[in-house]
Specification:
The complex is a heterodimer of chains A (about 150) and B (about 150). Chain A is built from 6 helices and no strands. With about 150 residues, chain A is mainly α. In chain A, helix 1 runs parallel beside helix 3, helix 2 runs antiparallel to helix 3 and helix 3 packs antiparallel against helix 4. The longest helix of chain A is centred in the C-terminal third of the chain and has 30 residues. The N terminus of chain B is likely disordered. With about 150 residues, chain B is mainly α. Classes of the chains: A mainly alpha (about 150), B mainly alpha (about 150).
Chain lengths: ~150, ~150
């Protein structure tokens, strides 16, 4: 309960910092969030997966591709099943690979860029399939199966 | 709450047997009553069933009301929590599909884009049918652009 409350407060703090254009400060708030001692519960995993996805997006904003990739991988450790959070992390990972492809193309590495682009498409396709399943499960018999 | 009010109105309209002239429920009811007067007598027409073919005015109105009722029942079945999850997933799906189409557009390979688009449009239909819409979220309109929001 204390973890969830602290996580909410830190997300709110990061929101305000992001709105003010201070990406570094927002990264700091979210890093404090993922460093919190989380109780072993699926809810904690969802909060952490969500925070790592946000961290990855912020790192991408700073063009830190390896850093973003690392955040996604840590997030995926908290999102094993087909959930919205896993789908979102795969979506962000696709964006990371897309950015990598662009960087490689700019550097004249056409072949490597094509490989990164193919990985990006594959990850994004997986994200689409996971979210499709999430929607189907959420709405199956009005969610009565969940 | 708004949904409940809508349901009450739709359910009432569709399930209510033809009103008797003795009961006056305001202009809306009166209008419905006038329309219903073209239908066979109440005793001959079982409630909750579509009228016989060949009565387009009454059939059309009832079809619309029954459609509304069906949609409202779907909305009632899907809880707000289910719809929030579905809408979030739909938004993520939409962003991913848009990126796939952007990336594959460069290489001229349309199959992956077409597949992602097909899945997305099907998901939009499903969310619209169960939830009605996604407030402040992605569009559930089948023909909305991809992505519908940014």
């Amino acid at each position: 309960m204390a973890f969830l409350s602290a996580a909410r407060a830190l997300h709110h703090e990061a929101d305000m910092q992001e709105r003010a254009g201070d990406v570094d400060a927002a990264l700091g708030s979210l890093q404090r969030l993922v460093a919190l001692k989380a109780p072993k519960a699926s809810e904690s995993d969802e909060v952490l997966a969500d925070a790592y996805a946000r961290l990855a997006e912020l790192r991408l904003e700073k063009n830190d591709v390896p850093g973003a990739e690392q955040e996604v991988k840590q997030g995926l450790d908290h999102a094993a099943g087909p959930t919205y959070f896993r789908g979102h992390l795969l979506e962000v990972e696709g964006l990371v690979e897309e950015r990598r492809a662009a960087t490689l193309a700019d550097a004249g590495s056409a072949r490597e860029a094509a490989g990164a682009r193919a990985r990006a498409v594959s990850l994004l396709e997986e994200a689409v399939r996971v979210q499709e399943l999430v929607i189907a499960r959420a709405l199956a018999d009005g969610g009565e199966d969940d | 709450m708004g949904l409940c009010l809508l349901l009450t109105r739709c359910g009432g309209a569709a399930r209510q047997p033809p009103s008797s002239p003795a009961q006056d429920h305001g202009p809306e009811e009166r209008e419905r009553s006038t329309t219903d007067s073209a239908a066979p007598p109440a005793a001959a027409a079982p409630p909750n069933t579509a009228p016989p073919m060949g009565q387009p005015a009454v059939g059309g109105a009832r079809a619309v009301a029954l459609g509304e009722l069906e949609r409202s029942e779907h909305e009632l079945k899907a809880s707000p929590g289910d719809c929030a999850t579905a809408c979030r997933a739909l938004a993520s799906m939409e962003r991913a599909a848009a990126q796939i189409c952007s990336l594959t557009g460069e290489s001229g390979d349309a199959a992956q884009c077409d597949d992602a688009r097909r899945r997305l449009l099907s998901a939009r239909d499903r969310v619209r049918s169960a939830c009605g819409g996604c407030p402040a979220g992605p569009s559930v309109d089948h023909d909305a652009p991809i992505p519908s929001t940014r």
